[in-house]
Design goal:
single chain; about 240 residues; alpha/beta; 6-stranded parallel sheet; 10 helices; about 45% helix
Length: about 240
């Protein structure tokens, strides 16, 4: 159903990393720091090459029972990626990576846009594949405009599993039809929107991530502030 023919939601839910927080930029910088000065028998990987392998391990571990918290997933993904490239893994490498996540800043338009949405009467919730203590540093940079935070640690499940979304909707006291989800991740959040049936706006920040071939989001915008245009057109602002 087009947004302008659907009921105005009370709650807006958001992906965090890549949607609100500068994830790719921060992750690239952290990996470059980890790789700096590392000796290897072959040509060292670039940060992009390293992250391609790291992402595969991370997503696989998140999907593989039993549940592990995100800090543990990060450590194991990093260890496996180091081994893949013939690099020595050091415990401080994982600390460098997880410590950098909490300090990653919001995109420039995020805080003002969240303020506008909150002032318009929407309640705002983050649903994120992370641990409570990691995301706390990111939320503290959002101007006090986030009403609730639901993490994989709380739900003991990672997106795109319906478990984390069911946990979030139960905590918010809503059904999937009552929310609009705003996200930048096709293979996590758009996949969940397709499978669960909640309304979804995709933030396509030009990272090269492709939309799913079998799912069309309710709207696509390049930055978070353009969500305001979509809501104006729907008569919600």
């Amino acid at each position: 159903m087009p947004l302008n023919r659907a009921p105005r939601p009370q709650w807006l839910t958001f992906d965090c990393y890549g949607t609100l927080i500068q994830w790719d930029e921060g992750l690239q910088a952290a990996v470059e720091k980890i790789l700096a000065g590392r000796a290897t028998a072959t040509k060292p990987p670039t940060a992009t090459q390293f992250l391609h392998v790291y992402d595969e391990h991370e997503h696989r571990l998140e999907r593989t029972p039993p549940y592990r918290n995100f800090a543990e997933v990060t450590r194991e993904s990093l260890r496996l990626t180091m081994a893949h490239f013939g690099l020595e893994y050091r415990p401080q490498d994982a600390e460098t990576l997880t410590g950098s996540i909490s300090r990653m800043p919001p995109f420039p338009e995020v805080v003002d846009t969240l303020a506008r949405l909150q002032q318009a009467g929407f309640r705002l919730c983050i649903i994120s594949n992370t641990d409570d203590d990691i995301i706390a540093g990111n939320v503290s940079q959002m101007g006090g405009h986030i009403d609730r935070v639901i993490t994989a640690e709380q739900a003991r499940a990672y997106k795109p599993s319906p478990v984390i979304f069911a946990h979030a909707h139960q905590k918010l006291g809503v059904t999937p039809a009552d929310v609009v989800h705003i996200c930048a991740s096709p293979h996590l959040d758009l996949a969940a929107a397709r499978d669960i049936g909640f309304r979804c706006i995709w933030i396509d920040r030009g990272t090269g991530r492709k939309p799913l071939p079998d799912y069309q989001p309710d709207a696509t915008v390049p930055t978070l502030d353009r969500v305001l245009d979509v809501f104006n057109a729907a008569g919600w602002l």
